[in-house]
Design goal:
The structure holds 2 protein chains of 2 kinds. By secondary structure, chain A is an alpha/beta fold. Chain A is 28% helix and 24% strand. In chain A, helix 2 packs across helix 3. The longest helix of chain A has 16 residues. In chain B, strands 2-1-3-4 form a 4-stranded mixed beta sheet, with no helix packed on it. In chain B, strands 5-6 form a two-stranded antiparallel sheet. In chain B, helix 3 packs across helix 7. The two termini of chain B are 24 Å apart. Classes of the chains: A alpha/beta, B mainly alpha.
Chain lengths: 361, 450
């Protein structure tokens, strides 16, 4: 699979509720095989955006495009071909941009198909390729776990036998096999949480969207879920998840999108975002070299801490040059570290700041 | 379509595989039977026999009274009362009570008391004393001259509230005194009875083809049909309401909406619950037919069976057809309510108006049974909301011309189309609105927008 093709492309999407603009001209891309962190404070427009991506609501403006690998035999054990569906692609014309009246934007990626194979045909709905775990989630209270899971799988058009096999496998993984025939009300909240996750992945989605997936889980289960997500990434599936837990996001995400007040604040790979938000700070512990630190072309400011100094580089100054100069000056350096802001710092400063519209990375 | 059927299957199984469905299916016939039998059964719980002293200076009334209160006479009376009760459900409450009393027949024990040569006051105080010592329950003082216009019969009972006892006694006494008076006037009692017996009014309705129908059993059958439709509509309307609210309350709606189109979900839900309702109705109608088939093989019951109005297969088809129209009308209303409210309790409050409309429809059935060809019957049996209950009753009472049935189906079909269109719009938006109940202006906005 080519790295360039984005699984999901959101372009200029706007959603209004009456006079309130929940999402304002939002654009971003999510690439396959990446974990995409969708961050923002409460009320920033995350859930509204996610709902548009999963097709629950339609954007007022803008377009959302999907690009999934062909799903030939996705739910079939082997050589059995898929029959023609009685329903075509549902989201094909999810293009609400007034200017763009172009033809269908959503197709399955035909370029990935070997030349010998048939012309790609839309064989399943976009919604069947997405697994969505909403933030506000629930299960049928008085229904057996296995019946609920079968129902959710059926709604994603998974054949019954395949669904049954996957239910058994996932329940075993979640160590919930013995609860298969129990009703929801007899399960603890954490168990219900895991069942909900199973419901999200039963149809083997290519794009997994998890809204606050870790809330209500104990640390052991959080670790377990992180492992599962890592697996998805290895299978080259795409994961979008939104969370308030910046530490988790920092651990898991390859890419970040931070929105605030309906607008994008920053997006890009975790590394890029961190660098963009870094203030060129260096933590230094050294004996000597004081003369170098007084060079205004290199150093803007020095803040003395208990056992180290925090150096703010002058605009345009290079940290490597500073290090070389310090070494040349004969200073004995025990610590020279470029200080990176944590995601938490970025989050807080971004939310407090005016959006940096010019910060395209 | 596969997703639609998945929803149908899900909703159907959710209802039919529950214990409550089985119990409800069995309970309705049992309850129906209960309403007919239990009151009679309770009335027939006999109390202890009443210990009675009769002071009869004439010596002529007491033997007749004893005869009238004998066990054989009681049995005969009870049997006659039971027969009348089956034939005539139109009876007033008073008549019913009286019949109940007749069937009741708790006996009397005559206690001997020698009143000879005692003054009336002594007798009274004696008897009052016996009653207080719980030796007797009641006493009856018969005056000397029973023919006198101001002749006063005194009945005193410790069980004054037991209207059954006093009524039974009064009747028996009346009869005894009357026959004694007749005997005194040398009139042959048997002859008089023959001459003064009631006429038997054979009441049957005739339809346009001049065929006769038994009006009594027609009433019962119409009532049963009207009731069956009313009850199933109420039950399954509430089921829809509950199912919609559950998915909204538990936020399952969000997952569902990300998997299937809202209309698929709504339609699947309506159809799935509908099939469950049809299953239940089918069981009821089927077992009713089976019961009649069985009864008609029993010789002594064939009279009862032949009194049942003739039900053609076409009528059964109409019955189910109008159940379906009623179901889709009310179910879509309940779906709208379910997507507006936030909890089941709130839904219960809002369910009141449609249930009232259904109830009015049910009561209109009585007007239709009385006069199936009146203007009122015509209009209510073609109007939306009421037709599902009143038209089947009218068809049974006196089948209207086909165009009227077709008109009713067409009008209600249009109503269904409109309501489902409305429900789909409200459902789509309402199911994702959490936290607060939607106001009517909001709902109107959802309908007009999008």
């Amino acid at each position: 699979m080519s790295e360039g093709a984005a699984t999901l492309r959101v372009e200029g999407v706007t959603k209004r509720f009456g006079d309130f603009t929940a999402v304002d001209d939002l654009s971003f891309e999510v690439r396959p095989g990446r974990v995409f962190g969708f961050l923002g404070p409460n009320g920033a427009g995350k859930t509204t955006t996610i709902r548009m991506i999963v097709g629950i609501t339609k954007p007022d403006e803008g377009k959302i495009e999907y690009d999934f690998p062909r799903d030939e035999g996705r739910h079939r054990p082997s050589d059995e071909g898929r029959g023609t569906r009685d329903e075509g692609l549902e989201f094909v014309s999810q293009d609400y941009h007034p200017a763009a009246e172009a033809a269908a934007l959503v197709t399955h990626n035909s370029s990935l198909t070997p030349a010998s194979s048939l012309v790609p045909r839309p064989s399943s709905l976009i919604s069947d390729r997405i697994g969505y775990l909403p933030e506000e989630r629930g299960l049928y209270k008085k229904m057996k776990i296995v019946d609920q899971l079968r129902y959710f799988a059926a709604l994603k058009d998974v054949p019954r036998s395949v669904a049954d096999e996957r239910i058994d496998r996932w329940l075993a993984r979640m160590k919930l096999s013995e609860w298969k025939n129990t009703k929801t009300t007899d399960l603890s909240k954490g168990m219900q949480q895991k069942i909900q996750f199973v419901a999200t992945v039963l149809h083997d989605p290519d794009l997994l969207i998890l809204d606050e997936p870790f809330s209500g889980l104990d640390p052991v289960n959080v670790e377990f879920m992180i492992d599962v997500l890592a697996e998805f990434r290895q299978e080259h599936k795409t994961v979008i998840f939104s969370t308030h837990l910046m530490e988790t996001a920092e651990r898991l995400c390859n890419d970040i999108l931070l929105i605030n007040k309906a607008k994008k604040v920053v997006s890009g790979s975790l590394r890029q975002v961190k660098e963009a938000y870094g203030k060129n700070l260096i933590a230094l512990r050294a004996i000597g070299g004081d003369a170098v630190l007084k060079d205004a072309s290199l150093v803007k400011q020095v803040v003395e801490h208990a056992d180290e100094r925090e150096i703010e580089l002058a605009d345009g100054a290079d940290a490597q040059l500073l290090l070389r100069r310090l070494v040349d000056s004969g200073a004995e350096i025990t610590k020279f570290e470029k200080v990176e802001p944590t995601l938490n710092d970025i989050f807080i400063s971004a939310v407090e700041e005016v959006p940096r519209s010019d910060m395209v990375i | 379509m596969r997703k639609f059927w998945a929803v149908v299957r899900h909703e159907y199984r959710k209802i039919v595989l529950k214990w409550t469905f089985l119990i409800g299916t069995l309970l309705f016939p049992v309850l129906g039977l209960g309403f007919a039998v239990v009151p009679a059964l309770i009335f027939s719980l006999k109390g202890d026999p009443t210990r009675l002293v009769v002071v009869d200076p004439t010596g002529k009334v007491l033997p007749r009274l004893k005869d009238n209160l004998s066990a054989e006479r009681f049995e005969e009376k009870a049997r006659r009362a039971a027969e009348e009760q089956i034939g005539d459900l139109n009876a007033t409450q008073e008549e019913k009570m009286k019949r109940g009393a007749d069937q009741l027949a708790s006996g009397f024990v005559f206690v001997n008391y020698n009143a000879a040569d005692k003054s009336p006051d002594t007798v009274r105080s004696d008897l009052n004393g016996m009653a207080m010592r719980d030796e007797i329950d009641a006493y009856l003082l018969i005056p000397d001259g029973i023919d006198a216009k101001d002749a006063k019969f005194e009945f005193r009972s410790r069980k004054a509230g037991d209207f059954v006892v006093s009524q039974t006694l009064e009747e028996a006494l009346n009869e005894a005194v009357r026959s004694q008076r007749l005997a005194d006037a040398h009139i042959n009692e048997g002859q008089l009875k023959d001459l003064s017996r009631n006429v038997e009014l054979d009441s049957k309705a005739i339809n346009e083809k001049g065929e006769e129908k038994d009006s009594g059993s027609l009433f019962v059958a119409s009532l049963v049909i009207g009731m069956m439709i009313y009850i199933t509509l109420t039950i399954y309307g509430q089921v829809i309401l509950g199912a919609v609210v559950e998915e909204k309350e538990t936020r399952i709606a969000e997952i569902l909406f990300s998997s299937a189109r809202p209309f698929q979900l709504l339609a699947g839900k309506l159809v799935g619950v509908c099939l469950a309702g049809l299953t239940q109705l089918g069981i009821w109608v089927g077992s009713l037919l089976a019961l009649f088939a069985f009864l008609s093989t029993q010789a002594d019951m064939s009279g009862l069976v032949s009194s049942v109005p003739h039900i053609t297969p076409l009528m059964v088809i109409y019955f189910f057809l109008f159940f379906l129209t009623g179901y889709f009308i009310y179910a879509s209303i309940f779906a709208v309510i379910g997507s507006m409210v936030t909890t089941v309790q709130e839904g219960g409050q809002f369910a009141f108006p449609p249930i009232m409309i259904m109830l009015v429809g049910f009561y209109l059935c009585f007007a239709v049974i009385r006069d199936p060809n009146s203007d009122l019957s015509f209009w209510v049996s073609i109007s939306p909301f009421f037709a599902p209950m009143t038209m089947p009753v009218r068809i049974l009472a006196e089948t209207p011309p086909f165009w009227q049935i077709a008109l009713a189906v067409a009008i209600n079909g249009l109503a269904i189309a409109g309501l489902i269109w409305l429900a789909a719009r409200v459902y789509r938006v309402g199911m994702l609105m959490y936290g607060k109940r939607a106001t009517v202006p909001e709902v109107l906005k959802w309908i007009t927008q999008a």
